[in-house]
Amino acid sequence: MTRKIIWAPWRIEYIEKAKESLGTDKKDECFLCTAWYNDDELVVYKAQNSFIIMNRYPYNPGHVMVCPKTHTRYLENIPEEEKIEMWKLLEVSIKALTSAIKPHGFNVGINIGRIAGAGLEDHLHIHVVPRWAGDTNFMPICGNSKIVVEDLKSSIIKIKSYLQEIVKELKI
Fold it and tell me: I want to staple 125 with a disulfide (CB 3.0 to 4.6 A). Which of 20, 48, 65, 108 is the partner?
């Protein structure tokens, strides 16, 4: 089978940044730290010690990451209050995504270390990836391609409004 090339010019920014930061441990070069301190447009909710950010290069529409404020690659280095808050934000993320985009399920995971798939090794984070029946169809299997059907700004607008409602309900 011949591999087809899908044009995705926005990915070059990710590739270039990844090359620049390979092996770095510097907080000031971490896009999650930058997002926390600079109120990045991708941050859809910011709590006291952790936040929810849209993945700029999503696996599926609505792909978010729950992140601690603490810049560390080690789970044991995250203060207890941040871990608790992250767990609450994980719950909030799933509720908001369920209301906003109605997925049939979720993949939730942490990639610790480059070998485990971490694109950003130095700032631990939790991926929340919405899934639908049929989202793994012929394109990724036969076409060796993945299609993301919604642009990031549309996802941000949908998800942000639901997050605000749910956070009020849960008093976070």
Answer: 65
Q: Which helix (H) or strand (E) holds 127?
A: strand 126-131
Closest Cα partner for 21 from 10, 6, 32, 5? Answer: 32
pLDDT digits 0-9 by tens, 104-122:
999 999 999 999 888 899 9
pLDDT in tens, 28-53: 589 999 999 998 899 999 999 999 99
d(CA 1, CA 17): 32
Backbone CA torsion sign across 9, 13, 14, 15: positive
**Helix ranges, the chain (H):** 11-21, 31-38, 80-101, 138-141, 152-170
Between the alpha carbon of residue 60 and those of residues 71, 87, 100, 126, 157, the distances in Å are 26, 22, 14, 15, 16
- Does CATH place domain 11-170 in 3.40.50.150? no
Q: What token pair was written down for 50?
A: 């952790």
Catalytic positions, written as ranges: 125
The structure's pTM equals: 0.76
Q: Are 8 and 120 in contact (CB under 8 A)?
A: no
